[in-house]
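pipeline stage [seq->struct] | target=ABC transporter ATP-binding protein | organism=Streptomyces liliifuscus | residues=255
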Amino acid sequence: MASDSDSGFLLELDDIRAGYGRAALVLRGLTVRVPAGAVVCLVGPNGAGKSTVLKVASGLLAPRSGRVLVDGVDVTGRGPQQLLAAGVAHVLQGHSVFREMTVAENVLLGGYTIKDKAVVAERADFVRDLFPLVAERWTSLAGLLSGGQQKQVEFARSLMVRPRVVLLDEPSMGLDPKTTGVVFEQIVRMREAGTAVLLVEQNARRALETADIGCVLDLGRVHISGPARELLADPQLGELYLGGRPAQPPATPKR
Ligand SMILES: Nc1ncnc2c1ncn2[C@@H]1O[C@H](COP(=O)(O)OP(=O)(O)OP(=O)(O)O)[C@@H](O)[C@H]1O
């Protein structure tokens, strides 16, 4: 694996065109860049292609054209296992814990490719430190945990392979506002532990409050990107995507 690329970006999706089968393209020349150790958030309307971006980044969907780079290494066309080995972990939308297994068994599954037992034990200690809830409920059946707690188990499992970047697809889906707050705190902890995050969220305002960089997707491209705080402060963006109010009445269209 090469060290950080000259561009300074850990993950780069460059001019990606991608879609499903014979249907029209979903991504039409999309470029997203994730710096090492940063949280980048994708927001945009339903069906804009946010989840599709994550599928391309983790190798679940091969792009028709464009390039995927990890640490400056071209990994375009590689599958999910190879992308995981390159340092890209994907936490899918919805809940993916095995309910009949314990928290420990669920988390340790994330390290099943690691042969060295000492490394597995060291990684398990690391994720238990990072997510105290996971340590507290280590021997509980995962199915007994709440939705937000199960999300933390999924985060912990994804970190077992020490990924460079974690792709999070709608981590707050189905969670109440308080639990959503806890999940976002855990995302901040992941960043503090040195893991970059590419985040897709319906809860755009909350996500931008956590992220370093925001990207607004529209019509299969990044429409606007920049420091998340600036996007949050943009009244037009607030009205369009963040459920806010315009700073001034909308202009009357010219005839
Ligand atoms: N497996 C699939 N097969 C065919 N079409 C798909 C598939 N997955 C997604 N699509 C289509 O691709 C488009 C983009 O979907 P995607 O899930 O990436 O959007 P999104 O921005 O994440 O939407 P949402 O916010 O509703 O989750 C949609 O028109 C969707 O119907």
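stage status: PASS
auto-comment: Residues 245-255 have pLDDT under 50 and may be disordered. The radius of gyration is 19 Å.
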